[in-house]
């Protein structure tokens, strides 16, 4: 199963922000959009970094509320791991497990075409498991 299938179901919307936005802006964006991470995109729309709820909590714990006035570019992760839509769910799950992160932007070349979260993958796995169980029940009932 490829990531393209999941993107076709959930859409290609990605919450992005400029590197100049403040950490306070990002906190509001995370809450308003009900997402766990925001892609920081440069003026050309290419990925410059990622900031997640974990980064916000960590920087607040380490430095206090003053960080809310800092530019997000000071606290984002710059080395962003991406995937392409033709990769499989298993491949991206391995990448998330290895890197210990829960969000992966999907790119076509350098262009951002979607975002997959661990929640999307769990939802997909649950649907697959339910479909298999249902097929098995039908098989047993008709055998
Ligand atoms: P998360 O589990 O997604 O909340 O992220 C945990 C940490 O990994 C945070 O420091 C994020 O900035 C970072 N992170 C999240 N997604 C990625 C990614 N795709 N590539 C690199 N780092 C990431």
Automatic annotation (TrEMBL):
UniProt keyword annotation of rRNA processing present: no
Protein keywords: CBS domain
Domain CBS: 8-67, 76-132
InterPro entries the record matches: CBS_dom, CBS_dom_sf, CBSX3_CBS_dom, Diverse_CBS-Domain
The organism's place on the tree of life at top rank: Bacteria
SMART domains found in the cross-reference section: CBS (SM00116)
Matches recorded under PANTHER family: CBS DOMAIN-CONTAINING PROTEIN, CBS DOMAIN-CONTAINING PROTEIN CBSX3, MITOCHONDRIAL
Protein name: Inosine-5-monophosphate dehydrogenase
Naturally occurring in which organism (per UniProt): Methylopila turkensis
